[in-house]
Amino acid sequence: MSGLKEALKDAVLSVLPSLSPDVISQLVEKLTNQGVEGLDDLIYVKEDDILEFIRPIQCRKLLSAWQNQANSPGSTGVSHSWAENFKVPWNVMPAGIQSAIENDQRPSPADRRQMIRILADEMKKHEENPTRSQCLTVTQQIVRRYPKVFADMVGDRQIVGGYASLLSQLKVRIEHLNRKSTLSHHMTQRNEIGNTKKRSSTDSYGCTSWQPILPPGESYESIEVKRQRMEEIHRHEGISGAQRGDICKLMEETYCLQRKMINEIPSHTIADIRTKWPYLFAQRHIYGHFEMLTDKKVLRLLESSIQEGGPKIVQFFKEKPTNEDVRNTLSSDQNDVAAMVLQLLLAHFKEKLDGLILLTDEFATPSDVQQALPLPESPRLIILGQSLSNQRWMLSVEGQVVCEGEQPNIVSGLAALFASFYNFNLQYQEEAACTLEFIQRLDTYAFAIYIHNGSRRSSSPYSQQRPLQSCEGNAATFSVRNTFYPVVSGCDNIQSRY
User: Fold this and answer.
1) Under 8 Å between Cβ of 177 and 463
2) What percent of the chain shows pLDDT beyond 90?
3) Is the pLDDT reported for residue 447 higher than 50?
4) 246 and 369 assigned to the same domain
5) Last residue of a domain, one of 142, 176, 210
6) How confident is the model at residue 421 (pLDDT cuts 50, 70, 90)?
């Protein structure tokens, strides 16, 4: 029975790696009590069977993954056996990895990234696109064999299974290697057929409801009627109508049509989307769309991450300032923890403030901002005032102001900025990619989402994006034993959108 429970635990963690050990144990116990005798039985599990332990979206995500695995040709015992019997090629790993293993020490981020590259290449010899479950099997093998070297730790305590960060790095690397073939596939489809296509599921990495199906009893025609109703309300009430209860309900009911437009290829401009969906750019509905897309409350999680991790980051840099810009930032009179953390990260990664945030007059209107500032194509948070603390803010995308903030604090603005990348299939701009990636990982087990392979507009619709230079030379090794989780790693897999 213990072997079955371990297998069930892995089947859950491969889909929901952020679940706590207690919840996983309860869930596995319920599955066995319900009569699950093997992994093949998971396709018979119903939502009501496990809903008492996890949220509805998490439940549907689990059931969908188990159903897809059962229907996939690659889900047979034979195809999974290679992962279970996979031999990690330790003999070809970097000298730093071999030394770390020999001395039970943490490897440097650069050595760890190189190990991930070798590991991904070796796994792709067995299967072109290894599943998350297969990646989980391999990373578990590594962590169980060398826990002191590779396990996720806080202090002397191992986090959950200890393999979440290694698993995410490996899966991101495999997605990165498969990106080129994905773009080629899209280009071939467009050239051969010539009409609008939806993006493939590979572009949805990190989202739980990237392109949902129509709700029961609805058609695209009936949902279009609801969209037109919101458009009419906006003509009479403007953006203030976003607070109406019926608008909130209509935004939820039309979510699948919103995603349909956003995900179409060729991509619509932000201006086109804003014309059709004006309330999608209200602060409330930016957050709401992100929650439906990822099953995460972006503002609440970012506030929690800053509150819990922010002081540790500031303290780390006070004890170990990594460059002169960091020292100058620490000597400023900034009292807002969120603003200080943001400036310290930008300084540490040697990224400029205007790669993420623009400052303007505190009384400026959206029209003033668009005339006074050279707004770039990639998203920017615009702070009204010369300080980052407790100021009104706006959000710009594709050279236009698309949202005026309702709460005068930088965390609410950062939450809207962060959500916009996911909502509209945008990738982090090169000018601030490392900082954004780090903020995303401030609470890995809260967000549990990773950069997707968005493919919105570039100078050429299907041009290969220019990869971001590795952060290896700029990033210090943030020790999870002495400061906080996670270690900054994997930045060389981020690709610039613009």
Assistant:
1) no
2) 39
3) no
4) yes
5) 176
6) very high
Residues 6+ apart with CB under 8 A from 169: 112, 113, 116, 489, 490
How is residue 48 written in tokens?
A: 């009501």
Q: What is the pLDDT of residues 162-185, one digit of tens each?
A: 787 888 888 878 877 775 444 444
**Shared-domain flag, residues 145 and 225:** no
Task: Specify if 191 maps to a domain.
Answer: no
pLDDT of residue 127: 86
Q: Are 301 and 447 in contact (CB under 8 A)?
A: yes
- Among residues 398, 417, 375, 399, the alpha carbon closest in space to that of 457 is found at 398
Residues 411 and 280 reside in one and the same domain: yes
- Pairwise CA distance, residues 27 & 289, whole Å: 29
Whether 189 is in a domain gets the answer: no
Number of domains in the chain: 2
Asked which of 12-21, 371-380, 481-490 is least confident by mean pLDDT, the reply is 481-490
> 3-state class of 384 per DSSP?
strand
Say yes or no: 224 and 354 in one domain: yes
Distances (CA, A) of 188 to 176, 182, 200, 204: 19, 10, 13, 20
**Share of residues in the chain with pLDDT > 70 (%):** 78
Is 121:93 a contact under the CB 8 Å cutoff?
Answer: no
177: part of which helix (H) or strand (E)?
helix 164-193
Angle (CA) 119 10 453, round 5°: 50
Q: Is 197 helix (H, G, I), strand (E, B) or coil?
A: strand
Residue 222 in any domain: the answer is: yes
Long-range contacts of 409-412 (CB under 8 A, 24+ apart): 409/338, 410/336, 410/338, 410/339, 410/342, 410/381, 410/383, 411/299, 411/302, 411/303, 411/306, 411/338, 412/283, 412/299
Q: Which two tokens stand for residue 161?
A: 């299974």
Indicate whether 185 belongs to any domain: no
Longest dimension (CA), the chain: 70
DSSP state of 485: S
At residue 94, does pLDDT exceed 80?
Answer: yes
Q: Which residue range(s) make up the domain with 92?
A: 2-176
User: Do the strands 157-158 and 153-154 form a parallel or antiparallel pair, or are they unpaired?
Assistant: antiparallel
Residues 281 and 401 occupy one common structural domain: yes
- CB of 434 closer than 8 Å to CB of 491: yes
Rounded to an integer, the average pLDDT of 464-481 is 33
Q: How far apart are CA 282 and CA 239, in angstroms?
A: 7
Query: In this predicted structure, what is the pLDDT of residue 210?
Result: 84
Same domain? For 360 and 477 the reply is yes
The answer on 205 and 172 residing in a single domain is no
Same domain, 341 and 476: yes
CA 108/CA 104 separation, integer angstroms:
13
One-letter identity of residue 382:
I
* Helix ranges, 393-443 (H): 410-423, 433-440
